Amino acid sequence: MNMYSYYFLTLAVLLRCFAYTQSVSHPGKCRLVFRSDEVQVICVSVNFKQLPSKAFPGNTTDLSVRFSNLSSITSDDLKILSHLRQLSLIRNQLRTLPADLLLGLSNLHVLDLTGNKLTALSSQVFHHSPLVELTLSDNLLSEIDADCLPVNNSLQRLDLSSNKFSQLPVAFLQRLNNLESLDLKNNQLEELTPGALTSLPKLEALYLENNRLKSLEASAFTGNPNLRQMFLSGNRLENLPAGIFLKQDELVFLDLRNNYLQNLTPGILDGRLYAVLSGNPWHCNSSLAYLWHWLRMNEKQKFHDDKITCQTPEHMKGRNITEIAATDLGIKD
Ligand SMILES: *[C@@H]1O[C@H](CO)[C@@H](O)[C@H](O)[C@H]1NC(C)=O
Ligand SMILES: *[C@@H]1O[C@H](CO)[C@@H](O)[C@H](O)[C@H]1NC(C)=O
Ligand SMILES: *[C@@H]1O[C@H](CO)[C@@H](O)[C@H](O)[C@H]1NC(C)=O
Ligand SMILES: *[C@@H]1O[C@H](CO)[C@@H](O)[C@H](O)[C@H]1NC(C)=O
Ligand SMILES: *[C@@H]1O[C@H](CO)[C@@H](O)[C@H](O)[C@H]1NC(C)=O
């Protein structure tokens, strides 16, 4: 270890001690970290029933209360923390949020409510803060009122994963013109309501894995020309309509693992850099020529452990598609 790293290590240890000795006067393990432009309060596994905001520094910019027992929260609990930029209340017992919750929090950009028991959201609940990132993962939501966010909002990242959506919250999504990342994995979506994604022109990442999607419309993603990554694994897709990714010049990563695909429509993967295709019941006859050619041409662009094998017909079962001779498939090389 050279002098410099020793010095920095010592400094880091000292700063940590300093941070710990500044613990707020509430019993339990809250940690306070002062930096030049931020004040963090981090409380993990403290048995709060209510947020003891008055015990926190008035200029707290980043508050995280995780694995606690908060069952309700009010606008008064937060109002005095008007410098908040990030608020995370991960793994609590929140069932509802009052409509005025964020009133006065005009600097709040990041809100994380992962792992609560929210079943519905009050209209206007996110109106008062300029949210850029909103995480509602692992709650009990099946719909979201369009008016939860104002028309001109600046939301860029929305995480609704691991909830109970069986349909997309169409009217709500239509307000999210600045959205870059939408996470809806681990829900119960059976279809993408036509037009639901059309007003997301900046969307770059779409997570739809582990739903129940059976089919997609050819026009499903026409409003999302900037998509770069799309995750569709763990659905029930039997085919992909021609032209479905025609507008996505930027699409470099496509995850289609563990669906019910027996074949791929010619053209679907043209221009794609990476595709993951294992766990599908490929039917190996001459109609598979497009996929066979694509795999040979793009040997490096699929993942090494990606097992792409025939399921049917019986005599081809288990064969690695890249290793099948053209004549066995009944096609020209
Ligand atoms: C926050 O308040 C404390 C105590 O008044 C002060 O020492 C610190 O500089 C302030 N920090 C910021 C980022 O405003
Ligand atoms: C939350 O409440 C439950 C049930 O009363 C209790 O078992 C658990 O220890 C509490 N959590 C914390 C972080 O104190
Ligand atoms: C939304 O923002 C744009 C540009 O900032 C502005 O022109 C427009 O009037 C706003 N619309 C509403 C409904 O606030
Ligand atoms: C390949 O198999 C599929 C599914 O059984 C069938 O629809 C298709 O017609 C076959 N292709 C050819 C060229 O026979
Ligand atoms: C399939 O064959 C290709 C080309 O021979 C090889 O690189 C790849 O490792 C094989 N995949 C499996 C899962 O055996």
UniProtKB/TrEMBL annotation:
Pfam (any one): LRR_8
PROSITE patterns: LRR (PS51450)
Gene3D superfamilies xref list: Ribonuclease Inhibitor (3.80.10.10)
Compartments, as annotated in UniProt: Membrane
UniProt entry keywords in alphabetical sequence: Leucine-rich repeat, Membrane, Repeat, Signal, Transmembrane, Transmembrane helix
Biological processes annotated in GO: axonogenesis; positive regulation of synapse assembly
Keyword Glycoprotein: no
UniProt topology in membrane: Single-pass type I membrane protein
Record's GO cellular component terms: membrane
Chief localization: membrane
Stretches of the chain forming a coiled coil according to its record: none
Signal peptide segment: 1-23
InterPro entries cross-referenced by the UniProt entry: Leu-rich_rpt, Leu-rich_rpt_typical-subtyp, LRR_dom_sf
Full protein name: Leucine-rich alpha-2-glycoprotein
